[in-house]
């Protein structure tokens, strides 16, 4: 019975170490590109929908 407890403890420690390692490595070297184009905008379109403007 102690063998199962030790195996479970080792498994939990390995999983915790893998999780911490994945969190520390995540995102390094993967910065989003910068776009030189302006974001889309509605410019001079009305902010209310058509059915509200006819009344």
Number of helices: 2
Q: What kind of sheet is the major sheet?
A: none
The secondary-structure element order is: HH
Strand pairing plus helix content: what structural class?
Answer: mainly alpha
Low-confidence segments, ≥5 residues, pLDDT <50? none
- Counting DSSP E segments of at least 2 residues, the number of strands comes to 0
Shape: elongated
Helix content: 40-55%
Rg from alpha-carbon coordinates:
28 Å
Distance between termini?
79 Å
Into which percentage range does the β-strand content fall?
under 5%
Average pLDDT over all residues: 78
Protein model, in words:
It is a single chain. By secondary structure, the protein is an all-alpha fold. It has a domain at 1-26. 51% of the residues lie in helices and 0% in strands. The chain contains two helices and no strands. It has helices spanning 2-25, 50-53. The N and C termini lie far apart (79 Å).
What can be said about this structure in brief?
With 55 residues, this protein is an all-alpha fold.
């Amino acid at each position: 019975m102690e063998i199962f407890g030790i195996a479970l403890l080792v498994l939990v420690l390995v999983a915790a170490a893998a999780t911490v390692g994945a969190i520390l490595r995540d995102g390094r070297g993967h910065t989003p590109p910068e776009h030189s184009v302006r974001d889309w905008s509605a410019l001079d379109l009305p902010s209310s929908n058509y059915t509200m403007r006819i009344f």
